[in-house]
Write a structure and sequence with these properties.
By secondary structure, the protein is mainly α. The chain has 46 helices and 9 strands. The relative contact order is 0.05.
Length: 976
């Protein structure tokens, strides 16, 4: 339906659309910034008009003489540290020499090398990484003040790096807030762990937060929008309704559809206005992307080349750079660049920077570039940018990586990664290196060096390991290597496979590599530690321990960072193998670290020791280690480590009976398949399954526990829980089948640290199956492996096994005593749920021994305590037993309050709620009461349960209306 050339000649030139349908949002934005500095969050889908709204607002600010700095966070696949803020400041400052910066300005030198002659000297290095980063943030705030900036606007912050988001948190928490902050983002593209989600919840109570969500255009606004593109001429209602129905009123979709119809000559004049041809003769592409690509294909080849070059550059670029990337002669480029601007896809700002009018257009065009042309353009871009007075190494790394120029890509990637480390941004450093390794074919030596630097824990996504393994295997298969070189590559294959959870495959690779790794090398020492870990197929514990029998002799040339990593890994391996020497090694792990890479290692170390302390039953140690890990992760912006810490914390909370909010925490981890590692999701699923088995739907519990079993480290405990459910339902054969599958792993190898939860279930299953001899052998093997180690949880578990054996043998009085002893051991940890179950078993022994008067009071106390804990399935079982024995069940209710308060708020819950009503966030309440934010969150949720409300706002209203707290002066700030 393209029409004839004559038809095309009668079509008017299209104009940029007028700003339509956003008066309310613009008024709200302008009103907000007229008073004190505010935080404005503009969220909405792609193409809805966030950028246009922001630009109209900034134009109005400029007319009033109010200066603004503007930056954007383009999706470069690899962000760069504080990139949007650096770009905004760079665009707003011509010369820093006249700003009169204090010594703080010297902290900006790594980010602004072009200002080296005008900035103050670099300040003395600080020992604390957080202090160094905050000094950098204060330097940025000083520049904002010297420039008399009133607004800092950042676009597409869903793509911002963590350092930028932390700076924004720092900025808006300053009192007084230095400038208004306006941010645009797409909520559906915000990672689950992003600091952006915490921005509003961490605002001070006196901060002014405005949220704007631009809506789709209605039919009337669509007609006005299209009319503005057609020189203000009338647009038929039928045409406007047609467009609205097919674009859902998304402004960018409307504009692109009109431009495409214009190019096709699908617009006709009728009755003094513009309309469409007959409906059946018009094909509207289903997506904005398709519309843009069809328009691009209608342009001349050289014009498409200009658009391709702009897409390759991905952000604003000057005329000379764009010309260089196209590879066109200047006379041809000039004519086709003008046509590209006329197409409405590109724009040129007042500073002469060219860019796409909307990121969607850039991404659509980029994906359409033929692969060979794309590589050639990236290579031209890299070579041109190398000639800049101050080369941008992150951009150079990207262009040479996508061009396939391995030497240049390696050089600039490592430079960019080192700059990120200097700024404390481990995550972006890891992402830069990972992107290079996954895409570019590198020489083996460079590949090994780079893979060694990747902190996988800092990478988001469910599987960052497979692309790296593929690159390493390609090097083994396609390069001529010496045996030692092969060993270095193969060791990395094995290490990464084990990090991905493929334990047996990884172990096999390392066993081949270890024969050729040089003596004294860090790789050999680390290989021995990895082979010592009792993961994967079952092996006798002696086979694992032999790899750790003597400390490795390390060459003097091994850097301190590698020595720290080996020390941390060795402590973890020893603890995993149940060796008390591991605690001595664990005490050598420092509480803090200055270098971000060291902080990463130490954070992992404390997390791993916390996990092992949980298995050993040293819950205070576990709590302290996980708290240290979290503090380090937050201080050094290791945000992707927080999920591992959270899953380990959830496991500890399950054992200690800290069940408030546990379901919500595990659900978040399990549900984020794209951002949380499988190991952490499986551990969360294990906890969720255990919780469901005690409190809710047992079929749901089975599903969660089966999922948890996908991870090697959770498989044994998950299987034990599934077998326990089968025993509760009388299905002994299923319990046998489940425990038989892993009995050799759990018991046969003598590895007691992995069998703490499994051994009692295996013992009970064998006894239920009428195999007391085998049950006794299991308990004895566990006792022999455990010995007299200071491991409270395993020792309590062993006492429980002996009680089960005594009960099955008819020694009821002895069994009752042993169950009571086990309960006391569990309570001392504390581990209240298992203590109550042991008390129930003790009381059942008393009943079987005819001592009802002693048993029934115990059972009533147990039923009540189980109910208060939330273990309703177990409480119901005990209530049924009491009813059958004539016990008093009336006092056993499903009350949800804590002991002593029932459904009334405790004094501390009242205090927390009072502060909530005053408008404080959880973090501010925690600071006021000198407790953790987690404790506050737990108390808020407890109060919400007791008062039967589902949000913080509803809680505030309920306590005020009920007279528990006076009328608030400030409404609650956020519905967290």
């Amino acid at each position: 339906m393209g029409g004839t050339p004559k038809d095309r000649g009668r079509l008017p030139a299209l104009s940029a659309p007028r700003f339509v349908g956003r008066d309310g949002e613009l008024d709200a934005l302008e009103s907000a910034v007229r008073s004190a500095p505010v935080v404005v969050l503009i969220e909405g889908e792609a193409g809805i008009g966030k950028t246009r709204l922001l630009r109209e607002f900034l134009a109005a600010q400029e007319e009033r003489g109010r200066q603004a700095l503007v930056g954007a966070c383009p999706e470069l696949r690899v962000p760069y540290t504080l990139g949007a803020v650096v770009d905004a400041v760079r665009e707003g400052v011509d010369n820093v020499a006249g700003l009169g910066l204090s010594g703080l300005g010297g902290a900006l030198r790594p980010l602004f090398p072009e200002w080296a002659d005008d900035l103050p000297p670099a300040p003395e290095a600080l020992e604390d990484a957080t202090a160094a980063r905050h000094r950098l943030f204060r330097a940025f705030i000083e520049i904002l003040g010297r420039l008399d900036v009133s607004v800092l606007a950042l676009e597409d912050v869903h793509w911002a790096d963590e350092a930028t988001l932390e700076f924004l948190l720092f900025l808006v928490s300053r009192r007084p807030q230095p400038v208004s902050v306006v941010l645009t983002f797409r909520r559906d593209e915000v990672p689950s762990a992003s600091l952006l989600l915490r921005l509003s919840s961490r605002l001070p109570s006196d901060a002014h937060l405005v949220r704007l969500t631009p809506r789709s255009l209605d039919v009337a606004a669509t007609a006005s929008f299209v009319s503005s593109m057609l020189a203000g001429e009338h647009v038929s209602n039928e045409f406007a309704a047609f467009l609205h129905a097919r674009t859902e009123g998304v402004p960018l979709a409307v504009e692109e559809s009109v431009r495409l119809m214009h190019d096709r000559a699908d617009l006709v004049r009728r009755d003094g206005g513009w309309a469409r041809r007959r409906l059946e003769r018009i094909e509207v592409p289903p997506t904005i992307r398709d519309a843009m690509l069809e328009r691009v294909q209608r342009l001349r080849p050289d014009t498409r080349t200009v658009l391709y070059a702009a897409a390759v550059l991905s952000g604003p670029a000057d005329y000379a750079t764009l010309l260089a990337v196209t590879g066109l002669p200047e006379e041809r480029f000039a004519a086709q660049a003008a046509e590209a601007l006329g197409s409405g896809l590109l724009r040129e700002d007042r500073s002469g920077q060219w860019s796409f009018r909307h990121p969607l257009a850039s991404y659509a065009v980029y994906d359409a570039i033929p692969a060979g042309d794309r590589r050639a353009m990236h290579l031209r871009a890299g070579r041109d940018m190398e000639q800049w007075p101050v080369p941008q190494v992150a951009q150079l790394a990207r262009h040479f990586r996508l061009a396939g120029d391995a030497p240049a890509a390696c050089r600039y990637t490592e430079e960019a990664a080192d700059l990120c480390i200097q700024s404390g941004d481990v995550a972006t450093s890891a992402l830069l290196i990972h992107s290079l390794v996954a895409i570019v074919s590198l020489p083996a030596a460079a590949l090994v060096r780079l893979v060694t630097k990747i902190q996988f824990q800092a990478l988001s996504g469910a599987d960052p390991h497979s692309p790296v393994v593929a690159s390493l295997r390609a090097a083994l298969a396609g390069q001529v290597l010496t045996p030692v070189e092969q060993a270095f590559v193969r060791f990395q294959v094995g290490r990464v496979l084990m990090a991905a959870g493929e334990m047996d495959a990884g172990r096999s690779e390392i066993l081949v590599a270890v024969r050729h790794l040089p003596l004294g090398s860090a790789e050999l020492a680390r290989a021995r530690i990895l082979l010592a870990l009792p993961l994967g197929s079952p092996r006798p514990i002696s086979e694992h321990l032999r790899w750790l029998q003597e400390p490795p002799l390390l060459a003097q040339s091994i850097p301190p960072l590698d020595r720290l990593r080996l020390s941390v890994d060795r402590a973890f391996a020893l603890l995993t193998l149940g060796e008390e020497a591991g605690w001595t090694a664990a005490r050598e792990i420092p509480d803090a670290a200055l270098d971000p890479r060291a902080a990463s290692i130490v954070t992992i170390g404390h997390t791993n020791v916390g996990e092992e302390a949980t298995r050993w039953g040293r819950y205070e140690e576990a709590d302290a280690r996980l708290a240290k890990a979290r503090t380090l992760a937050e201080r050094h912006l290791l945000l992707d480590y927080l999920d591992s810490i959270a899953s380990s914390r959830a496991h500890l909370d399950w054992f200690t009976g800290t069940w408030s909010g546990l379901g919500e925490c595990t659900a978040r981890l399990i549900g984020d398949a794209g951002g949380v590692r499988l190991k952490d999701r499986c551990e969360a699923a294990l906890v969720a399954g255990l919780l469901q088995a005690a409190t809710g739907d047992r079929e749901e519990a089975r599903e969660q526990l089966r999922f948890a079993g996908r991870d090697d480290q959770q498989r044994i405990e998950a299987t034990a829980a599934l077998a326990q459910l089968a025993l509760h339902e009388g299905d002994v054969e299923e319990a046998l089948r489940l425990t038989d599958q892993i009995a050799e792993i759990a018991v046969g190898g003598g590895l007691w640290s992995r069998t703490v939860e499994f051994t009692p279930v295996r013992t009970a299953t064998l006894l239920a199956a009428g195999r007391p001899g085998l049950a006794s052998e299991v308990a004895n093997a566990f006792a022999q492996a455990l010995g007299d180690r200071d491991a409270p949880a395993p020792q309590a578990s062993l006492t429980l096994c002996r009680a089960l054996l005594a009960e099955a043998d008819g020694r009821l009085a002895e069994a009752s005593t042993l169950f009571v002893r086990a309960a006391a051991a569990w309570e001392a940890l504390p581990r209240p749920y298992d203590a109550l179950l042991a008390k129930e078993r003790a009381a059942r022994c008393l009943l079987a021994d005819g001592r009802d008067d002693d048993a029934l009071p115990v059972l009533m106390d147990v039923a009540k305590a189980l109910t208060e804990l939330g273990a309703h399935n177990d409480a119901d079982r005990v209530v049924r037993l009491l009813a059958g024995r004539g016990g008093n069940t009336l006092t056993v209710t499903r009350g949800r309050g804590r002991p002593g308060y029932g459904n009334r708020l405790s004094p501390r819950e009242l205090e927390v709620t009072r502060l909530l009503v005053e408008g404080l966030t959880n973090r501010q309440i925690a600071d006021a009461l000198t407790v953790s934010a987690q404790t506050v969150a737990s108390q808020v949720k407890s109060a919400m349960r007791k008062l039967d409300v589902t949000s913080r706002t509803a809680l505030a209203v309920r306590v005020v209306e009920s007279g528990l707290i006076g009328d608030p002066a400030v409404p609650p700030l956020n519905d967290e």
